[in-house]
Here is the input.
Amino acid sequence: FMQNGTHYRTCHLCEAMCGIAVEVKGGSIASIRGDDKDPLSRGHICPKAVALQDLHEDPERLRKPVRKTPTGWQEIEWDEAFRTVAEKLHSTRSTHGRNSIGVYLGNPNVHNHGSLIATMPFLRAVGTQNRFSATSNDQLPHMLASLEMFGHQVLFPIPDIDNTDLFICIGGNPMASNGSLMTVPDFRGRLKALKQRGGKMIVVDPRRTETAKLAEEFHFVRPGTDAFLLMAMVNTLFTDELVHPGPAKDLIKDLDLLRLASLPFTPEAVAKRTGISAETTRDLAHQLANTPKAALYTRMGTSTQTFGSIATWLAYCLNILTGKLDTVGGVMFTQPAIDLIALGAMSGQQGHFGKRHSRVKGLPEFAGEYPSSTMADEILTPGEGQVRAFVTVAGNPVLSSPNGRRLDEALSGLDFMVSVDYYINETTRHADIILPPTAALERSHYDIIFNMLAVRNVSKYSEALFDAGPDSRHDWQILLELAHRLEKLRKGGTLPIRSELGWRAFRQVGPDPIIDLLLRTGPYGAGTGRGRGMVEPATGVIMSLLPKHHPLRGLAKLSSLNPQWQELPKGLSLKRLKEHPSGIDLGALRPALPNRLFTRDGKIHLAPRRYLEDVERLHRQLSAPEPSGGLLLIGRRHVRSNNSWMHNCRRLVKGKDRCTLLIHTHDANRLGLQAGSKAQISVADRQVILSVEITEDMMPGVVSIPHGWGHDRDGTRQSTASAHAGASINDLLSDQDTDPVAGTSVLNGQPVTVKVWQPEQQRIPA
Ligand SMILES: Nc1nc2c(c(=O)[nH]1)N[C@H]1C(S)=C(S)[C@@H](COP(=O)(O)OP(=O)(O)OC[C@H]3O[C@@H](n4cnc5c(=O)[nH]c(N)nc54)[C@H](O)[C@@H]3O)O[C@H]1N2
Ligand SMILES: Nc1nc2c(c(=O)[nH]1)N[C@H]1C(S)=C(S)[C@@H](COP(=O)(O)OP(=O)(O)OC[C@H]3O[C@@H](n4cnc5c(=O)[nH]c(N)nc54)[C@H](O)[C@@H]3O)O[C@H]1N2
Ligand code: SF4
Ligand SMILES: [Mo]
Here is the structure.
């Protein structure tokens, strides 16, 4: 184990990448506090940081593979586990074809560089097109807008919060979430600084959130209607001659198409839909246009709803039309040390959409994945290509995807299922074998993804804090081992020697030399030539494992790719980062156009066809009769909870019940609901029972339930979570509703019926 003393690290639990200082005494954790020297988080942490210790020490966290037997779970050796899983997957594939295996990748993969790197060979070895992930319950509309408008699926405009004077936050709650598609540790502190320089924040949300309470201006918006609001703001910019694209002026195209599309959506025409007055809508557009340093930001609430794609596209447009894109204090592109954006572009891998469609519902793939709302369809619907075996890696889709009960049922009928996860939870309880990885503190850490989204360019590497035991495996080791075995089975038992050597080298050195290589060849890199102290000479062999056209190949070309890189500070390598355990500051965000543009014609596309087509649906909605009856359901997050998997931590779940139904006083009175009483919330034949919390903070007509709860299912092994079970909002939500443009799940704005729960008359389905 690690020596006594203080160890510096990045918290990997959410997107904020806070620096932490972990005090180790006698081989265990004595305290976890914020690291003042971290250049991004500057000492900030949230209450979840203590969960790092609790997760590490949790006796219910699996340490060895387990197999399901008629008499319960049984520990087995790794070799037996790997052999069984590889054979089962291989035989399913041989009998039913490669698409008979489904794979779901969950959110924690994105916080795990080993997983990210090993996922590529793993997916290639499995070979299935039936891939799913949390993306379609999350940021898919942002990725689509980035691809359609800037030509690259991960080129996100990030609010320059440290320099802006006006932050407009629509459908995000960074006070609870600590930011998303905006890595922003210490949002509160940064907001305070914004106000001290005379700036202000405006929040638009169906709930007066923790963030809204700090805003100078707040507006309730009816769930699912942001596209109307944003379109009317675009309309206002054109009508009031406020279109001044600034740095993007010579780069934009189809401005006229956008203007035409916005014509019917005057502030007056949309007011009844949004619940926001025409005057306010107009004023929002004027404030954005007339504040030189302003940033409009949208997140979960606007992306995971019926018009999520249009709303996200229009938010991008509003920043562009008002000259905020690529402007200090506006929204900027990052320049991370590991530049996946440039890497992807270098080999023409900026992303793709709609190349294939899912078997049952014909939904489009995005970046090789189908919408997760159609997972159950693919498992339950017989026929050629039906999914019969399933792999989950760091995901809990039974709680995180809409209509979780249906997915529950689908997973229980599979021929075979394996989960790479360290808990027996609502999803993994369906697995035949669970392969538990090492705990997070037993592995090194580099944020490949969230550095692309951070409000400041930084770079930081954390070494493993504790030794992983000899009988444990990292996620990357598990994925690599399975991939290797699957490849071998496919090739009839043996692989060509060169390929075999590649697998062995990868297995031996692990993903960190790849991080070293990426740092060295990146924009701040120290270079890779002889005598520069490369960590592992085997990196070249690892490269040979990657698919032919993989962006990591041909890295040498990379450092000359972007002319602006010449001006950046140089010298980064893994060695250098190890000398700076609190991380290295690479400076504030800076203008990057036109280099950071990857469309074929070098233009920013303001009016892609897919969006224009869906504007017709938006237009029809405008003249459709007012939707009546029912309450609209939205989600929420709490700073002491993280998606579905941190409720086994006693320190985080203690205190008052947080999985409640939030409802406005008027609605509660009308329905005869008392505070603390139980309500039955239902949609069609689906229902949940929850305690009622009455508040003026909800928009009348809207109710809220957090996601990630519902830990009362049989056969899980998370006793603290089960004792604070709550109910799953996704047991209510329909999996039939998707945003037709991108295929994103509609997690916000579905209508529900709420009434007083009467236990003697009602039966709760098992
Ligand atoms: N503490 C904590 N932090 C987290 C997470 C967590 O579970 N807990 N999860 C992490 C993950 S995976 C992500 S993706 C991010 C998400 O980060 P955020 O997007 O900031 O997350 P939410 O808190 O869900 O914020 C969504 C907001 O949208 C509002 N909303 C709902 N429907 C609508 C609508 O139709 N229109 C508008 N305008 N608003 C609407 C909700 O009221 C809510 O305030 O958070 C990350 N951080
Ligand atoms: N209604 C509604 N649904 C939502 C949302 C919402 O706002 N409303 N939010 C959506 C969003 S933004 C997201 S990102 C998804 C998240 O959905 P998922 O990614 O499906 O689920 P998580 O709750 O993050 O569960 C993570 C799983 O990974 C395991 N795990 C944790 N760390 C590791 C690790 O290092 N290695 C491995 N192998 N396993 C690990 C945990 O035990 C747990 O089983 O939920 C989505 N679902
Ligand atoms: S905000 Fe909390 S959970 Fe997120 S990285 Fe920071 S300490 Fe970890
Ligand atoms: Mo997410």
